[in-house]
Specification:
- By secondary structure, this protein is α/β, with parallel strands linked by helices.
- About 35% of the residues lie in helices and about 20% in strands.
- It contains eleven helices and nine strands.
- Strand 2 and strand 3 form a beta hairpin.
- Helix 7 packs across helix 10.
Length: about 325
Amino acid sequence: MRRADLRAMMEVPPGGNPRAGHVALVGRPNVGKSTLLNALIGEKLSIVTPRAQTTREAVTGILTTERAQVAFVDTPGLLEPQYALHRVMQHAALRALEEADVVLLLLDATRPAEVPDGEAMTMLRAARDRLVIAINKTDAAGSDGVKELASWSRRTFDLDAIFISALSGGALDVLLAEVVRRLPEHPFLYPEDELAVQPVRFFVAELVRETVFEEYDQEVPYAAVVRIEEFRESQDPLYVRATIYVERESQKAILIGQGGARIRKLGERSRTKVEAFLGRHVFLDLWVKALPGWRRRAASLRYLGYSVPAGPDDDRNSRDEAPAS
């Protein structure tokens, strides 16, 4: 589905007042929320990898026509928190769900048994009047998985799900039309030419982190976080200094590689992505530092710029754990 076609589906009836609002994209990890956001906006805003829990912070992309504006909020996957970073991710997702004008629950047809539960399910039930359900990956799943989730949607919420494919664009026009129909009549919330809420630096850091996921295995990508230290737009090429924080010195050594070979490759691939995103030449200066146990320490998470909900630190176990699926 081309972006022009999607924009056409957003038009409100002639003479109607403009519609605008926030739409939270929620669901279990790896159901395709980021792919859906990128497809709907027509730009790559959320990083996408085959691994679960790639998204850590809410990312807002904006789609605007003359009469309607939709601010889609991509959220971290709904999971049972195991340590401090998980609590940060869960908090971001549930806050977006609570504040949204429309809640778009995305289900994965290839994994029909994986549906929200716990606190997330309680909040989804409370948001039933604002809820739209979409079953994703229908082109890659058998009919049994689609039928199972469709039955679950009717049984749990008394709602019929929309069958889509975020990757191929299948039925995204139908989904978008339903979302716009649910939006409140309201003046636009953002400038009409704005595509995202987060600053450019955020997306540059995310592109570097995406490349870490692509280039490294095992625990390294999950132990890595990227923060932009300098961003000199007045220079040509644009100068960007970014620090990649990991949890252990051994992970730092893996990132750098023998003689710096791996960090150079990471820098080259990241720079290509950043230049394509910004449309200009970039000098990308990457540094690597160890910040022990940062995923489990609220103080470290705040230092790295995460919004940490109130609650006790979880520093009791500094051992790395594999991410929840």
